[in-house]
Amino acid sequence: MKTVIIGSNHAGIAAANTLLDNYPGTEVVLIDRNTNLSYLGCGTALWVGRQIDGYEDLFYTNEATFREKGAKIFMESSVTSIDFNEKIVHFENKAGEKSEESYDKLILATGSKPIIPNIPGKDLEGLHFLKLFQEGQEVDRDMSRDDVQTVAVIGAGYIGVEIAEAARRRGKNVLLFDAMPTSLASYYDPEFTQHMDKNLEANGIELHFGELATEYKGDKRVEQLVTDKGTYDVDMVINAIGFTANSDLGKDHLETFRNGAYLVDNHQKTSDDSVYAVGDCATIYSNALEATTYIALATNAVRSGIIAGHNVGGTELDAIGVQGSNGISIFGYNMVSTGLSVAAAKKAEIDVDYTDYEDLQKPGFIKENAPVKIRIVYEKSSRRIVGAQLASTEDISANIHMFSLAVQEHVTIDKLKLLDIFFLPHFNQPYNYITMAALRAK
């Protein structure tokens, strides 16, 4: 059997590895328009902010590894069309040479593409997006210019906040803009984001929330950013508004979701029996929503690639859904969440309640210590846990895995109240904040 995979980032790599490692004799063809594969884009801000030595280790595999496994690889090759009836992929390389590959099964792993604001001045120099490795290189080079002193970041989601921190660590004046009233509004409730906002301000980032960019001004290079509330002198702009599914290749043939992502079943199969879609170009099932949705995360991409790989290889494997678990660390302040915030539940018309608690991570006599804030969100009718949020300067990240499983398995808030949580002063308190939050639930 011959499988063609279009796209070689997290989802495509996972699918290729699954097929090559588990199904001997399977013919795998990888096609990608990029110069590289397996780039960990989540490390871009660490590299730009000089928190790591360089970008070299942000690639976790390479062409040689796949060729040794027997894969056929076409890099810097753009797919021009797909003949779904004849099962042929047409593509051309950077020299303009045209080629084609037939397939028995096709895996679309084309990922996502940045949302580009269609406003005047969008073609000026000094405007950047962050998705590909090359875009990270361009941002790093531009930020190294002596005449770049003030950087505007548009979008205060994860990427925007992270690159704002990176620019500040490089000694730049940083202005952070978002249409929402706080940072990270898609992941956390205001009671949490307000602490991150204070953290950003305390570290010298100028916040402009509730503002919409309306124009870029400049001669050849951007010199000013205009919003619905003011005009700001800037030397560089980084757009981090968000992403949408990159589904151009199959949108006229395959069934799609409301945002254009390919609709897939729990085997990652599309509406065409010979075509699978994985990663950011495909839908995913949310256990919190109990519905199909779209969540663009690298972890989801890897899992979906593994599932598609096994099903294409002949082993039936069902996806079990996701919770959208995520985390961020900015200037030493850590936030993690899973499932739904109160705001997200309200938007989805799920009637929820929540319980909050705040306490020190460890007993008061431990010197290295800090407060932890927790919120557990649960559905009123069923009392199932649908989300959780934690924040602290302590490393509280591992706790979110338990809540992710709780959401997946429909654990109720009442079952959590007397959960067997160990105690040791080095790690936590005898009256653990998870237990205390659960006990306070109505």
What labels describe this entry?
alpha/beta, 5-stranded parallel beta sheet, 28% strand, globular
Tell me what the structure shows.
With 442 residues, the protein is α/β, with parallel strands linked by helices. The chain is 23% helix and 28% strand. It has eleven helices and 25 strands. It has helices at residues 10-22, 44-48, 63-68, 133-143, 158-169, 190-202, 298-313, 342-347, 399-408, 413-416, 433-439; strands spanning 2-6, 27-31, 72-74, 77-83, 88-93, 98-102, 105-108, 112-114, 127-129, 150-154, 173-178, 205-209, 213-217, 224-227, 231-233, 236-239, 243-245, 275-277, 284-286, 291-293, 326-330, 333-339, 352-360, 371-379, 385-392. The strands form seven sheets. Strands 3-2-1-7-18 form a five-stranded parallel sheet. Strand 19 (284-286) and strand 20 (291-293) form a beta hairpin. Helix 1 (10-22) runs parallel beside helix 7 (298-313). The longest helix is centred in the C-terminal third of the chain and has 16 residues, at 298-313. The protein starts with a strand and ends with a helix. The relative contact order is 0.12. The model has no long low-confidence stretch (mean pLDDT 96).
